[in-house]
UniProtKB/TrEMBL annotation:
One of its GO terms (molecular function) is isomerase activity. The lineage of its organism: Bacteria, Pseudomonadati, Pseudomonadota, Betaproteobacteria, Burkholderiales. Residues 26-194 form the Chalcone isomerase domain. The keyword Isomerase applies. Pfam families: Chalcone_3 (PF16036). The keyword Isomerase applies. InterPro entries: Chalcone_isomerase, Chalcone_isomerase_3-sand, Chalcone_isomerase_sf. This is Chalcone isomerase family protein. Keywords: Isomerase, Signal.
Length: 198
């Protein structure tokens, strides 16, 4: 092979290798960088959408929703087959009790009685996580994954905070806090579904 014809091939290979070595691109929300991809249970997920949870005038956390494929409606998100993830990065300190109460309130507003009656034990265990965890601090990262065959798996700053909660309906009840008919934040819901901030 002539050197002149080998150089473009070598350059092409080098560029491909460099591209693979680059870290995943990130989306920035309120100074928080969220990766555009995540790996859960060996599957590659894509950032479906991200935004800020605001309560009154206070910015509480940045949230990102990861799915195997982009979805635009709550029904599509809840019907996803396979792993899922949502990530919360705290923008302020919040007591574990307040955080747990906000989660429970969101579940109660968006899940009917019949469904909740099937999830009582998992809701109780979930509530215990935040009462035993203490405060969440600014910069803390709470990741909640749905892992098929295992359940809902939660980590805070990379450390497991509970045993897996096995029911998919429970994970969907969590997602409905933000994607249900009475979402915790009406401006965050469309952002998680991939709409651009206005």
């Amino acid at each position: 092979m002539k050197l002149s014809s080998a150089i473009p091939r070598l350059m092409g290979g080098l560029l491909c290798a460099m591209a693979l070595a680059l870290p995943a691109a990130a989306v920035e929300v309120e100074g928080v960088k969220l990766d555009e991809t995540a790996k859960v249970a060996g599957k590659d997920l894509k950032l479906n959408g991200a935004g800020v949870r605001t309560r009154a005038i206070f910015k509480v956390y940045v949230m990102g929703l990861y799915l195997p494929e982009k979805k635009k409606t709550p029904a599509e998100v809840l019907a996803v087959d396979g792993p899922r993830r949502f990530t919360l990065v705290m923008l302020r300190d919040v007591s574990g009790e307040d955080f747990g109460e906000a989660f429970m309130s969101g579940i109660n507003k968006n899940t009917d009685k019949a469904e909740k009656s099937k999830l009582v034990s998992q809701m109780a265990k979930f509530g215990e996580i935040f009462t035993t965890q203490g405060s969440l601090k600014k910069g803390d990262t709470l990741i909640t994954d749905w892992v098929p065959g295992t359940g809902t798996v939660m980590t805070l700053n990379g450390k497991s905070v509970s045993e897996p909660l096995p029911d998919l309906a429970f994970y969907n009840a969590l997602l409905k806090i933000w994607l249900g008919d009475k979402p915790a934040d009406t401006t965050l819901k469309p952002l998680l579904l991939g709409e651009k901030a206005s």
